[in-house]
Amino acid sequence: MLWLAVHSVTGxxxxxxxxxxxxxxxxxxxxxxxxERSSLNTFAMSLSIAAIAVVILxxxxxxxxxxxxxxxxxxDPPPSPDARIRELTEARAALADAxxxxxxxxxxxxxxxxxxxxxxxxxxxxxxxxxRDAGEMLRMIDEAREVAGEALTDLxxxxxxxxxxxxxxxxxxxxxxxSALLCPVPVTLDLDLPGRLQPPVESxxxxxxxxxxxxxxxxxxxxxxxxxxxxxxxxxxLTVGDDGRGGARRDAxxxxxxxxxxxxxxxxxxxxxxxxxxxxxxxxxxPCALSSPKISPC
Length: 298
Hints:
Strand order of the largest sheet: 1-3-4-6-5
Distance between the termini: 67 Å
CATH class of the largest domain: Alpha Beta
Largest sheet: 5 strands, mixed
CATH architecture of the largest domain: 2-Layer Sandwich
Number of domains: 3
Strand content: 5-15%
Helix content: 55-70%
Number of helices: 8
Mean pLDDT: 76
């Protein structure tokens, strides 16, 4: 009903405006007779006629554009709460699937990595215990010690993939800084986070940043990258950019969909700007609060 009321007023408006302009044009062109005929008067009248014609054309276009915009504002329904609930449900389901896959990966890594090495250590120590040759015994113990070091490395890598110790010790900014140091591409950091986030949020944003830096290394061909981190008005904003070849897309298998799923589970969003030829910027926004102030080390 509101649209019909507005349309009944705005619909005839272009016609009325055009009629008024044509009436002005008719008056200037046919009814206005200057007392003195000169080239200056002729030029002035020609200029006024041209100006009226331009105003007629522009008024019709502007009226139609304004009417279309007003119709869209009145007729296009705002996003419904049910649609947003469905989006969040799908995002959380995708995150649950990703976590289940991560648990299977951890189980597989433990079985094929640390567990196999621990069995090898036990076998080496058993052989060393049963050996009567001192040299052979020492060799078996040395091999067991070497395998134990490899198992320890595997376990550390596994723990780092689940929840990096640096994230718990130094917070999100410190963890991103440590991840940037491991990136083969030089990374410029601009991190300003005056407090700590809730652990699940910290973990999600950290792994999103780490995945973005991995994309820079694997796919961008960049000479440099940058990371900016800010928190203002209850919104965390993380930007990861590079000067590479560009062309990053969510459907290209570059991990952007995984980043988006991590953020969507916390009502976050991912904006991708990556024109061909670069630069590429991933802007991640996440509504969250700081749970505690940042404590400077003594």
